[in-house]
Recover the amino acids of this structure.
């Protein structure tokens, strides 16, 4: 029987030496047991290290255990103890029960035990007494020495009372983790596993008295016990004087174990000392070697060399600090050849930094392992349970009912919930009695038939809730009564099966963290219910108290983390996280409020109380003063983990905006390294930052106007030029430039040139377009209400107007915060690039403050990057849950739910001043309402008026603040042809407008007998250009196998007529998402490169429009884009399906010169369409036969919304996925399973399409 210490500094190789010894001896002695005991969180890593250290990769006679696992192993062998182990949640529940029984007998604790957190403090004291061997006898002896009238005596008397009751309750039935080691100590002599074994202990900084007793028993039965100790070679490990030194823990461990070894007559072998300098870990890094030698030693030594391995960084806030760390990690991986596993991040407080670090790393696509357990309070199932009981407790208030109904697990569709909510709001229905009574009153939206349907939903809802209501209304109810009722309700709703479906979905999508959470959550909740029933079953309780008890249980419960994969950055805290073989360490949160942090709080027993225990030779856990030195030891071990780089950072202000200072640690490092300077990350140049596609800021485009320009807000500058009778073309051109700069131009800045072009393409590119009165009024008008609506046709300049508005708002108020948003990812990327180009052209001299004053982002965004979307930013800013995915939640519902949460915030402050929304037809009212809530001043909404027509909305009800019906981008002939094809005007008409509706779309209506002529006024852009040799739309037939040659022939024709054409002047768009088109896109990519040496950008892959490349994409990625020439491809017949016609209209209007429509030569309607289009090209107006009154009635009553009752749910889902470009077979399979689960056979196609689009977009994130 022997004891041997392995001593050494941090990084000296203690663990390596121990494991090497164990493996070598285990190979030599295959029949002997070797037990390696480490802290619980280190067991998996230690097993891995030992396997790697073994020559054959196998450790058959080596076991890696924690103290707890060792106890289970021995109990299983000897049959010592069958009692249930009571965890912390169980202790809290037992103590709560005991507190209720004996509170009247208490003095100090009376009235406090029901306060939040107080029970946990009492539990901590009892656990401490158990760990340090303070039983009733020792406590009674100590109390005799304390004055009876002192406050400490009263406290201890209360603790004694609760302690005794607690032990009585546990006797013969339960055992605590602390008591388990005592029982294990008694069982050690009977264990064959332990007899003659070799025990190696690693990773411990010290042992409690209970653990010391166990180790003493091991001395008696084990052949040898080996223990690693972190110790400086300059210290005497065998002399422990006081706890106020950095290596006090190690000295205390050594001295106490040597004393026990002496009592047990155990041989103490010569220690293995690894005190060489420099230590092995820092043999190649002098700075880190010096840090390890001198940190917290106060020898006066200084490192006078340059500091390349150690750096200090000051950052604005914790969020910015996390971003700095993520940038630095990416730079190391990108430029220095680091692997992610070579890097670790340690936070002084994971409660402050966990979320911001996870989000920052996600924005840079950095894989991370978060070494902390996650709270379950935000889990959707937990929210479901809480909302269920909250609804009953609050007696069915409007908010509580619909919080429950919208929790995501109720068997009501979104439409049903919306209808119920509208009815309840209209009639002010609240209270359970109102839900039990039949509804009879009608509203504007609910006629008698609708009220009857709502009553069916009401009855369904009440029947589900009634059994739970029956229990909750009992005057005498127990914890068991309520728990059983809730469990039966959950089981009846099949929640376990629903959660399993979600877990499988997340696993298939690679969301392993969420999959792990949903795999555990049902078990965690059920185990909590089991504890309620077992420990507090017969306890009388009110529903309010039960809800509080449940919340307390949920707060204690945590979701286990997924073990790290091969290549991840480990993020954790100083004490818990184990880092191995890392090259770089980032320490965040080096602020005075976090270091030493809460070490100054002593709990129920104060520092003075602990001193009195110490005077009587009773050991307790370290007090606040000792914890400061223990923290220094943990800092020493953490900061000496990296072999190459150490970065420490701190924030200037907290998340709440309070000023912060650097911690004492920073001063210590600056003392050791006099040449170490602090880097202020706010002053870092843009060129020194890491830029990603997602979050990067592109350089502002070079300006093309080098002459001084006077900015004038006059609206009659053009008249002044005319009065001065400018006749010289160059002077006129300069005058046009001045007008464009004064009032704004729809053209892009780069289209201005000096030379007069000689072809149509360049003439139109260079043509300056001036705003009309309505557009100019929009730019300079002050908003008179919260929402301003702009509607217009494709090409009327909606986006350009929004850009001008942004420029005016940005320059008028240097404090305002502006958001520019849209639905489409490619369009958002394009707008992000256009803003700096436009600002530069308009001579805006101040630099754009991205993500501070101006955001350009899509509507939804992603959880990992708050600046990626309006919704994600709102969730992050107001700390409300972010909805990534739910089986039956559409984006509109999610926005309304977010709005509901914001409405509950007291003293609500807007996070933006202005929000500008482009392509508003892609959004529903929920998103607009959410934007209005968070925008302090105004929301500007711009959309396509003609798409409203396609959705069967009459123009007479459209009442925008600004109506734009003059198309400035597109040749009027192209627009007229697109309208005609889209509305079927040359065929069997699909839609017809009244005269005032045609006029609202910018047409002049003329009648000639039965025919109607629809004219558009000529545009200034085309007025002095000869367009006779160019067509607005050209229809080209193609054989089934000839599409490639047809497209290439079209490009040849464009190049022949326009010698200066560039790759990005042409856009190729295909209608159907079919394999033939994807194959065609691939062939075009190679053939165009080979034939013209042009690069092709496949838009549905890159999700962006790239300068200098020919754009090829499906119809889903072209909204908001424009090209001089567009080639539209249809391989299937042009049917009367309105989604197809709508898409054709959108595709054709992407050009401002000519659109080519390639149709299958077998299509029957080619012969009808071609004459009509040729007439428009030749005559410049539309001539169609006016429908009869009977036909107008038919068209007015037609259901143009894309509902098709004759198609199966499967067929409709297939059709929608084809339309939106879902090509991944596995994703299509998942979508079919989800739609089958969520929708009935008679489903509204719009709802189905929105559901599929929402889920597909989440799959892509």
């Amino acid at each position: 029987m022997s004891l041997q210490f392995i001593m050494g500094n941090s990084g000296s190789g203690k663990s390596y030496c121990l494991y090497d010894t164990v493996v070598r001896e285990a190979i030599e002695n295959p029949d002997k047991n070797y037990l390696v005991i480490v802290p619980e969180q280190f067991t998996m890593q230690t097993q891995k290290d030992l396997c790697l250290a073994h020559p054959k990769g196998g450790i058959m006679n080596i076991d890696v255990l924690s103290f707890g696992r060792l106890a289970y192993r021995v109990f299983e062998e000897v049959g010592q103890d069958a009692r249930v182990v009571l965890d912390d949640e169980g202790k809290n529940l037992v103590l709560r029960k005991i507190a209720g029984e004996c509170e009247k007998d208490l003095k100090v604790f009376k009235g406090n035990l029901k306060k939040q957190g107080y029970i946990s403090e009492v539990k901590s004291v009892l656990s401490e007494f158990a760990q340090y061997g303070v039983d009733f006898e020792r406590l009674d002896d100590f109390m005799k020495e304390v004055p009876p009238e002192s406050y400490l005596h009263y406290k201890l008397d209360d603790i004694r009372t609760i302690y005794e009751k607690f032990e009585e309750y546990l006797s013969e039935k339960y055992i605590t983790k602390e008591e388990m080691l005592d029982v294990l100590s008694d069982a050690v002599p009977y264990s064959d596993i332990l007899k003659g074994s070799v025990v190696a202990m690693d990773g411990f900084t010290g042992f409690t008295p209970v653990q010391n007793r166990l180790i003493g028993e091991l001395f008696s039965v084990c052949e040898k016990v080996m223990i690693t100790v972190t110790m400086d070679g300059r210290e005497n490990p065998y002399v422990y004087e006081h706890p106020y030194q950095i290596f006090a823990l190690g000295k205390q461990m050594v001295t106490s174990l040597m004393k026990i070894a002496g009592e047990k007559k155990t041989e103490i072998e010569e220690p293995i000392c690894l005190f060489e300098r420099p230590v092995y870990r820092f043999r190649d890094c002098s700075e880190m070697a010096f840090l390890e030698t001198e940190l917290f030693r106060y020898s006066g030594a200084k490192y006078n060399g340059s500091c390349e391995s150690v750096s200090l960084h000051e950052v604005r806030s914790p969020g910015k600090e996390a971003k700095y760390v993520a940038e630095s990690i990416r730079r190391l991986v990108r430029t220095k050849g680091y692997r992610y596993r070579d890097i670790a991040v340690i936070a002084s407080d994971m409660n402050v930094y966990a979320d911001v670090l996870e989000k920052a790393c996600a924005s840079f696509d950095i894989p991370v392992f978060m070494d902390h357990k996650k709270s379950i309070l935000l889990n959707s199932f937990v929210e479901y349970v809480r909302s269920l009981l909250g609804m009953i407790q609050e007696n069915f208030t409007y908010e509580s009912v619909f919080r429950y109904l919208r929790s995501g697990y109720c068997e009501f569709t979104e439409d049903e919930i919306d209808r119920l909510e509208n009815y309840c709001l209209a009639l002010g229905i609240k209270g359970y009695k109102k839900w039990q009574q039949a509804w009879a009153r009608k509203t504007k939206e609910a006629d008698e038939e609708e009220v009857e349907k709502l009553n069916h939903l009401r009855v369904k809802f009440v029947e589900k809730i009634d059994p739970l209501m029956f229990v909750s209304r009992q005057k005498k109810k127990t914890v068991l009564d309520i728990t059983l009722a809730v469990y039966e309700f959950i089981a009846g709703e099949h929640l376990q099966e629903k959660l399993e479906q979600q877990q499988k979905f997340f696993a298939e999508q690679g969301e392993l963290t969420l999959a792990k959470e949903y795999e555990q959550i049902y078990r965690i909740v059920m185990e909590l219910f089991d504890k309620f029933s077992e420990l507090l079953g017969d306890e009388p309780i009110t529903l309010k108290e039960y809800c509080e008890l449940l919340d307390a249980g949920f707060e204690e419960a945590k979701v286990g983390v997924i073990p790290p994969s091969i290549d991840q950055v480990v993020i954790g805290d100083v004490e818990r996280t184990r880092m191995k073989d890392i090259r770089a360490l980032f320490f965040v949160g080096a602020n005075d409020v976090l270091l030493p942090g809460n070490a100054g709080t002593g709990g129920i027993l104060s520092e003075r109380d602990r001193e009195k225990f110490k005077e009587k030779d009773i050991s307790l856990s370290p007090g606040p003063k000792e914890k400061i030195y223990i923290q220094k030891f943990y800092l020493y071990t953490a900061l000496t983990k990296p072999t190459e780089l150490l970065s420490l950072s701190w924030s200037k202000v907290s998340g709440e905006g309070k000023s912060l200072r650097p911690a004492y640690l920073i001063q210590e490092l600056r003392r050791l390294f006099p040449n170490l300077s602090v880097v202020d990350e706010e002053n870092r140049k843009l060129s020194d930052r890491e830029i990603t596609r997602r979050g990067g800021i592109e350089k502002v485009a070079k300006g093309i106007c080098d002459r001084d320009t006077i900015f004038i807000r006059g609206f009659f500058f053009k008249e002044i030029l005319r009065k001065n009778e400018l006749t010289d073309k160059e002077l006129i051109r300069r005058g046009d430039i001045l007008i464009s700069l004064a009032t704004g131009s729809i053209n892009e800045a780069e289209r201005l040139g000096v030379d007069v072009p000689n072809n149509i393409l360049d003439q139109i590119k260079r043509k300056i377009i001036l705003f009309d009165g309505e557009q100019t009024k929009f730019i300079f008008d002050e908003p008179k209400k919260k929402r301003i609506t702009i509607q217009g046709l494709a090409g009327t300049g909606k986006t350009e107007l929004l850009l001008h508005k942004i420029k005016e708002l940005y320059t008028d108020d240097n404090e305002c915060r502006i958001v520019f948003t849209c639905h489409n990812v490619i369009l958002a990327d394009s707008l992000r690039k256009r803003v700096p180009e436009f600002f530069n052209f308009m001579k805006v001299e101040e630099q754009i403050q991205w993500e501070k004053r101006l955001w350009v982002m899509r509507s939804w965004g992603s959880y990992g990057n708050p600046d990626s979307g309006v919704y994600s930013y709102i969730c992050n800013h107001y700390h409300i849950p972010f909805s990534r995915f739910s089986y039956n939640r559409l984006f509109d519902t999610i926005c309304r739910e977010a709005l509901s949460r914001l409405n509950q915030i007291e003293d609500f402050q807007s996070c933006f001043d202005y929000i500008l929304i482009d392509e508003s037809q892609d959004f529903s009212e929920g998103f607009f309402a959410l934007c209005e809530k968070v925008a302090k001043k105004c929301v500007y909404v711009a959309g396509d008026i003609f798409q409203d027509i396609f959705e069967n909305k009459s123009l007479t009800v459209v009442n925008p603040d600004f109506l734009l019906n003059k198309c400035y981008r597109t040749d009027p002939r192209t627009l007229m042809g697109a309208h005609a094809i889209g509305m079927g005007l040359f065929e069997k008409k699909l839609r017809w407008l009244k005269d005032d509706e045609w006029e609202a779309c910018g047409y002049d209506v003329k009648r000639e007998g039965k025919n109607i002529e629809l004219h558009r006024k000529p545009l200034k852009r085309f007025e002095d250009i000869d367009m006779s040799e160019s067509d607005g739309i050209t229809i080209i037939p193609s054989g089934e196998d000839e599409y490639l040659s047809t497209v290439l022939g079209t490009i040849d024709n464009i190049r022949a007529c326009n010698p200066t054409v560039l790759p990005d002047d042409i856009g190729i768009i295909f209608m159907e998402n079919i394999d033939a088109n994807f194959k065609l896109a691939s062939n075009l990519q190679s053939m165009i490169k080979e034939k013209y040496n042009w690069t092709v950008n496949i838009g549905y892959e890159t999700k962006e429009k790239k300068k200098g490349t020919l754009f090829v994409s499906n119809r889903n990625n072209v909204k908001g884009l424009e090209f001089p020439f567009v080639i539209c491809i249809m391989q299937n017949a042009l049917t009367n399906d309105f989604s197809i016609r709508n898409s054709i209209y959108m595709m054709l209007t992407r050009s401002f010169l000519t659109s080519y429509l390639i149709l299958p030569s077998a299509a029957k309607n080619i012969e009808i369409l071609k004459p009509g289009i040729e007439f428009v090209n030749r005559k410049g107006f539309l001539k169609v036969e006016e429908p009869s009154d009977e036909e107008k009635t038919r068209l007015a009553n037609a259901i143009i919304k894309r509902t098709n009752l004759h198609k199966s749910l499967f067929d409709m889902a297939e059709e929608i996925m084809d339309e939106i470009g879902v090509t991944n077979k596995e994703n299509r399979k998942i979508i079919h399973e989800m739609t089958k689960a969520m929708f009935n056979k008679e489903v509204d196609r719009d709802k189905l399409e929105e559901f599929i689009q929402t889920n597909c977009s989440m799959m892509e994130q």
Remarks:
- The chain has 47 helices and 33 strands.
- The longest helix spans residues 448-472.
